[in-house]
Design brief:
The structure is a homodimer of 160-residue chains.
Chain A: E1 2-10, H1 15-26, E2 32-37, E3 43-51, H2 54-66, E4 70-75, E5 81-92, E6 105-112, H3 114-124, E7 129-134, E8 138-141
Antiparallel strand pairs in A: 1-3, 1-4, 2-3, 5-6, 5-7, 5-8
Chain lengths: 160, 160
């Protein structure tokens, strides 16, 4: 089963190597990985999409927590989450439909969950995809919906 | 100066480690990195945003080309390119504006170039960003605009 794991790390040399070495050394699969800045310039956030049964995912989380400069590891599959990915897709235009001085390709941006991105790639594939680049997925946990208690009404006017 | 480098790699264990080790071992900066599938399941595409003067970038490209399972390295700054990044931004809602049983946060998706993404993050920061996750940038080269030669007209009717 596929899991999305977010890993908050200190922005220090070698932390990406250590995480990558952990996966390659133990033969854990990486479907996609992205690492990018956070609001705090001393930290970066990694998002790793990996596959494995519960036991393997548990091991991955445990091992990641032991890596130097790893601050926090969250398996997003333990909760509901929103995921997004962006793909840039360069498509051949059909020359016969075009005037003679126009471009020969379109570049299309697609952002959505994995189903939407893969549906668009499948849609454009028969037209001839010249180049494709994907960001890999990022995800954020949904907040639990809290049913707040009814609030006491303010007494606007004292009643006798 | 910032450079976006795309690295096409064989989808084999250890290639991400080798690339990450190259950067950390030589002290090259990684601003963001993403690695994701391509149309060909035997290959992945990495996009690395790094900083350095021309000499350092030249070294990085040269070293990347020597890494086992690296197929192709392109410094996108050598041409014009389109870049995109996606950020998911979870923002606190202001409790005083809300009825009592509604959610306490919004999650916003932003896709655009680095300026747009960072402008949105700066815009939302005073409202209180609870969580932020970014994909890192991906980019695709613009096609050179070719001015095609005027095409010969078809002779519809022979004139005498």
């Amino acid at each position: 089963m596929e899991h999305i794991i977010s890993v908050l790390v200190e922005n220090k040399f070698g932390v990406l190597s250590r995480v990558a070495n952990l996966f390659s050394g133990r033969g854990y699969n990486i479907e996609s990985l992205s690492v990018a800045p956070t609001l705090d310039p001393s930290m970066s956030m990694m998002t790793i999409v990996t596959r494995g049964d519960d036991k393997i995912i548990e091991q991955i989380v445990k091992q990641l927590n032991k890596v130097i400069d790893v601050i926090k590891v969250v398996d997003l599959n333990e909760t509901e989450f929103v995921e997004r990915e962006t793909a840039l897709i360069k498509i051949h235009t059909r020359q016969e439909d075009r005037a003679d001085s126009t471009p020969t390709t379109y570049t299309i941006e697609v952002t959505g969950d994995i189903r939407k991105v893969e549906a668009c790639i499948n849609l454009f594939q028969p037209l001839g995809i010249k180049e494709l680049v994907r960001t890999g997925r990022v995800a954020i946990a949904r907040e639990p919906v809290r049913q707040a208690a009814a609030q006491p009404r303010r007494v606007l006017k004292e009643e006798k």
